Amino acid sequence: MFQRTACVDRIKVDSIIFSSIFQIGDSQQIQANSKAIAVQREAEIFYDNEGSFSAFSIFSEAIPFTPVDEIFTSSTQNLNPVLKVRNIEIIGAASSSVVHLGNSCHISMEARVKHIRQLLPREELNNYINHMDR
């Protein structure tokens, strides 16, 4: 099934988070999914009912996918069956990403992030800052 071998002398990965994959070796299928709600606030005010993915349509909408329906012919010839790499350095992989050393047949990745910025009206912000200084 697979035609090449990856050979790596050294790999350094600092961080792998949020539905990310670090895979050494061949895989038939890789599927990762990540959802996040990121809230930026001017004031540290929190409510009990926050953080429900169902409250935002971005997390339930279907992702448009248009399959390739063109007919094409391809040919691959691997003259050297070994892919040789001396050194790999990765700072980080996050939000449904893959660091993969090997061959794959099917890969599906999805990351959905809802960013919310809650800014106070200027008068309310000034009152909040004055209250915090006391």
Structural commentary:
The model has no long low-confidence stretch (mean pLDDT 83). The protein is mainly beta. The chain is built from one helix and six strands.
Quick gist of this model?
This protein has 134 residues and is mostly beta strands. Helices cover 9% and strands 42% of the residues. The strands form 3 sheets. Strands 1-4 form a two-stranded parallel ribbon.
Fold topology:
Elements: E1 5-13, E2 21-24, E3 27-41, E4 82-90, E5 98-101, E6 104-118, H1 122-133
Parallel strand pairs: 1-4, 2-5, 3-6
Strand proportion: 35-45%
Taking the alpha carbons of the first and last residues, their distance comes to 70 Å
Cα radius of gyration in angstroms? 23 Å
Mean pLDDT: 83
Q: Quick one: how many beta strands? A: 6
Number of helices, counting only DSSP H or I runs of 4 residues or more: 1
Kindly name the structural category. Answer: mainly beta
Q: Share of helix among residues? A: under 10%
Low-confidence stretches: none
**Lateral arrangement of strands in the main beta sheet:** 1-4
SSE order, one letter for each helix or strand: EEEEEEH
What general form does the structure show?
elongated
User: What can be said about the biggest beta sheet?
Assistant: 2 strands, parallel
